[in-house]
Amino acid sequence: MLGAIIGDIVGSFYEFAGIKTKDFPFFSNKLSFTDDTVMTIAVAYALLDGGTSDNFIDAMKKFGKIYPNSGYGGHFALWLSKADNREPYNSWGNGSAMRVSPCAWFAESLEEAERLAEISAAVTHNHPEGIKGACATAAAIYLARTCAGKDEIKKYVEEKYNYDLNRTCDEIRPNYCFKISCQETVPEAIIAFLDSTDFEDAIRNAVSLGGDSDTLAAITGSIAEAAYGIPNEIIKTAIDYLDDPIMTVIQTWLETGKPIGAFNFHK
Questions:
Q1: Best CA proximity match to 174, nearest among 137, 225, 129, 209
Q2: How far lies 172's CA from each of 20, 176, 215, in Å?
Q3: Residues 61, 43, 260, 205, CA torsion sign
Q4: By the 8 A CB rule, do 13 and 210 touch?
Q5: Which distant-in-sequence residues (6+ apart) come within 8 Å of 185 by Cβ?
Q6: Which of 92, 118, 176, 215 is the most buried (most CB within 10 A)?
Q7: Beta-carbon neighbour count of residue 228 at 10 Å?
Q8: Could you report the per-residue pLDDT of 6-58, keeping only the tens digit for each?
């Protein structure tokens, strides 16, 4: 879960820059959390509140109101702005995958991770591709956090979700550009993890593809966290970007005894 937030923060400055290099400042005063972080926290809040469709809707609208200017996509922003609108809008956008990581940490089985991911996605992103992207991401995270190797994760995602993961970042990078769909973001984000050597390298891979960098890095970071853990220095730096409403949800999550990531987290 924190891996997604860190990926969002690191990628935030490069979202529209289209950089094609792994050589960039990992943290700077130009970075901030965006809608990826806000909605990740909303999903965590909803799971703690019961994990029903209504819980997800309520939490997303609650945190959308707290953070109204966080860079939401147009359709999602419109959905957030109408308090009485609780119907999904058939989105296939990558927002369902960027926010899904708490489902994989909350779940006690792979099947539950995928089920919770589907519920969390379908309240807005009820297009098959929107649901697929969230479920594939949650599956990869759950498998990584339960010690599955990269080959096993790759095989499972390819066979169940029919994503082409037989590429490398070097092959993707030259022609890749800003994409907002799950089908053109989630496979690339998973490959950025598969191609990595550690948590930081995974985030650098994702940002270097030159696409929707904060969302790519949020998805990649959520998987990399589960596989590698996160160095303490990165955690300490990242949490300084977070404010009280977000930290309150994180602390509440910790108090439930549910795992939050492959590290010891302290404010």
A1: 209
A2: 10, 6, 16
A3: negative
A4: no
A5: 94, 97, 133, 179, 211, 212, 215, 216, 219
A6: 215
A7: 20
A8: 999 999 999 888 899 999 999 999 999 999 999 999 999 999 999 999 999 99
Residue 93 phi, psi dihedral angles, 5° rounding: -70, 165
Structure tokens at 111: 């099947």
Which two three-digit tokens encode residue 170?
Answer: 């070097």
Whether the predicted model's global pTM rises above the 0.85 cut: yes
Give 74: exposed, middle or buried? Use CB within 10 Å, 0-12, 13-18, 19+: exposed
Domain 2-17+36-68+87-255 class in CATH: mainly alpha
State pLDDT tens for residues 229-255. 999 999 999 999 999 999 999 999 988
Q: What is the pLDDT of residues 189-224, one digit of tens each?
A: 999 999 999 999 999 999 999 989 999 999 999 999
